[in-house]
Amino acid sequence: MTNQPLLEHLIELRTRLIYCLLAIALGFGVSWLFSEDIYAFLVRPLSTILREKGEHQLIYTSLGEAFMMYMRLSFWSGFMLAFPFVAFQLWRFVAPGLYKHEKRLFLPFLFASPLLFFLGAALAYYFIFPLAWDFFLSFETAAVGGTLPLHLEAKVSEYLSLVLQLIFAFGICFQLPVLLVLLIRLGILSTDRLVKSRKYVFVGAFLVGAILTPPDVFSQIGLAIPLYTLFEVSIWIGRFLEKREAAVAGSISL
Fold first, then answer.
1. What would the pLDDT profile of 177-186 be if each residue is shown by its tens digit?
2. Model's pTM, two decimal places?
3. Where are the beta strands (DSSP E) in 107-237?
4. How far apart are CA 46 and CA 55, in angstroms?
5. Is 82 helix (H, G, I), strand (E, B) or coil?
6. Which residues are paired to 155 by β-bridges?
7. 34 secondary structure, DSSP code
8. Among 133, 146, 137, 129, which residue's Cα sits nearest to residue 222?
């Protein structure tokens, strides 16, 4: 742990923030060069299903909509590319003010958080998207008995907004073990308290799934079950850490 004057802290904070903004700008530039590939990747789960149902397309209804869509994709992709560097810069800023044991406490979460985010995003992309899109497209109908057909003509901006919403919802919810284990390590929570709250967490997981996902049962259950599973994993990890700390404390007392 080191002591620095306030002015030096502010100067270092400004430097770190500039580095972060430059990294995000660089990530945005790289993502812009590959924006069509990113778009193709995100639309692939939908296009795979649509090819089986015949010819479909995504549309945009204003001149600037497609351009803003690519800008938005490039920004969020660039931010995700730059996030490990941004997290490292934030760590470099706060690390000098931490004791050695505090550094050992926080450092593992710096690596676990991005990994869990990408695991959540991968679950949404490879498992939830195909099920949810197939469910929504099942409401297409042909013209029968003089009725008008019901046919999907989705706006590209609305589709990608839904995709990004789901990706970030799953990625953020997958941070639950990081939060709970950190609170256990800090002594704010205990595994006994978490065990007593199981039934509330179970109901809460389904409420979160209903709020953060589209109104289909596949995406809601697809978020709720992993979320509750991560809660149980957090309890298991917390118990392991509590037993280890108790063993260390017992050996020191002897």
1. 988 988 888 7
2. 0.82
3. none
4. 12
5. helix
6. 59
7. T
8. 129
